[in-house]
Design goal:
heterodimer, A: 239 residues, alpha/beta, Rossmann fold, four-stranded antiparallel sheet, globular, B: 423 residues, UDP-N-acetylmuramoyl-L-alanine:D-glutamate ligase, Protein-Tyrosine Phosphatase, Chain A, 3 domains, nine-stranded mixed sheet, six-stranded mixed sheet, 17 strands
Amino acid sequence: MKMVVVYQSLLGIYGDQGNSRVLAQRARWRGIDAEVVFAEPGSPLPDDGAIYLLGGGEDAAQTTAVRALKEDGGLFRALDGGAVLLAVCAGYQICGKTFTIGGEAEEEREGLGVLDVTTRRGPSRAVGEILTHWTRPDGSDYVLTGFENHGGHTFLGPDATPLARVEVGVGNNGDGTEGAVSASGRVIGTYPHGPVLARNPALADHLLELALGHPLEPLERATEQHEGLRRERFAFVRR
Amino acid sequence: MADRVRLGAATVLGDAAALASRVLGKGSGASIRGQVLTRVHPGAFTSLVKGRRIASVTGTNGKTTTAHLLAAAIRAGLGGDAQRLVTNADGANLHYGIASALAKAPRADIAVLETDERVVADLVAAGHPEVLVMLNFSRDQLDRNHEIKFLARSWRDALQRAGDAGPVVVANSDDPLITWAVEYARRVIWVDTPSRWSADAVLCPACGGILERIDPNADEPQGRWDCPSCDLTEHAPDYQVRDGLIALPDGQVVDPLLKVPGSFNVSNAACALAGAVEMGVGVEDALRGFRTVEAPAGRFSVATFGDVSARLILSKNPAGWAESLALLSTPTVVLAIDAVAADGKDLSWLWDVEFEQLAGKHVVCTGPRAYDLAVRLEYAEVSHEVVLDLAEALRSVADQPQPVDLISTYTPFQKLLKMAGLR
């Protein structure tokens, strides 16, 4: 099973490569052969990955990444073939139809168009811990914890559904929603890093299940550490 | 004259507040002294930095140690006149801390100032430093990351405005953001340090293009960095650090024989040496001064906590942790993590540090955010345990060979210094 970290040097500023470490280990600990590939601009992006990961970065990095991904085409071929994509923060924004860059003079840029969302600059920057509620495929509620740091506000179109509902924090734009999921369910965008999968192992397992096409048994390994961290973060945010 | 009287009164009140802070056990009092001082006399910073010869040190990592090395070098150069030098040796490096240190030494005509990145522009404008050492510039506190380019621009603008009255800049030629920020400096002394080529530095700060490595050779196998889309490129160095040695502009190679550990401190020493020479200190004097620096502001000190002793290493960000992990030499190590404002509230950088290299060691994770580290170590397959309380974590390593190596983020580090009676 191949995980592709897309342009980590451009979009990986918030420890986002940690998402690939979590996915790969959770696969390996279940006896699944997992490989992590770091793809950088200038080299062809592998189009045979099972899961693709995009992370956070600056304005200039967003523009450069979109241009390079469009020229390369590998990511689009992979998604057409059924690959799964997790896009975080600036990576989430570039997955949309449009996003904006710049300070006072806000400029609109075309995104990758793999999520039906648009992003423009919000009135103030969202920086801090965030707690949201994600409804898992089995209908159960799972709390997602993370750290958000974004100046953009994201609005969903008809072909996207929110990933989660906000309990504490800002999320997409202050309307109580966080993140977006494509109609196929295989492209997921979200603001929190932390990195997000290190804080939320159930979301990591959901991505693995999407990519493998079958449910996975719960994992004993790392449970104690994850629960300790989640307990501590929940208590901190809800204090 | 009125200004001097007002400054004098403000200083007395600041001293009283600092004393109160020390008596109450809240710290050294440097910061509170500065706060009271600047409250009573808002222009204190501007007044106090005027009329002295100033050498300033800034950058993301290594500011405190480099400022200590530079101060020691200048003291060695001054010989019996060492009291002419003032420095904010405790690491209080914002307006308050600098004002506080200078107010205590009205007669000192030479100042070595560790300067927070956010204060550099004001210091250049108000204090006209003779020398400004710029070590490196990478993401430090992630929750403040969006400020990086803004800060670099503030330095660039300040140096441009200062023009011919600006400082001689000692700059790390390996760092593209610094190279861009000092483009308008009156004069630049370039120091080439072993590359810490990082993800932060990959985009050209001038034009947003992707930087490349060109001209690899035996001396620099990675080559030098260059922007293929604009003119920004790595400059030829005046000083060069290779294999723990420093090559001087005249070609002579010296061994700094530092008391502080780590190859990164050789890079810091090269920058301090270049700064000292620009301040008029001879190389021999500077090197002699360096050897008096052992535990700048408690960093690298061996501290005693009852039956346990620990070597205290401070690390504040991924670049710092990458350097510090390589220093760990004991089989069990204590790693202390917090994420309040002074540490940076965003801990996601833990995932950019290669903790995998600790395989074979046992880690005691401590501090309020110990569980963030425990998750990271579990995925790195490094043996560990969580002991949230610092004192308890230290007691848990009492059966280990002493001193035990300990790395900490900023806030637990200050607590440890206090627990050990070092501040």
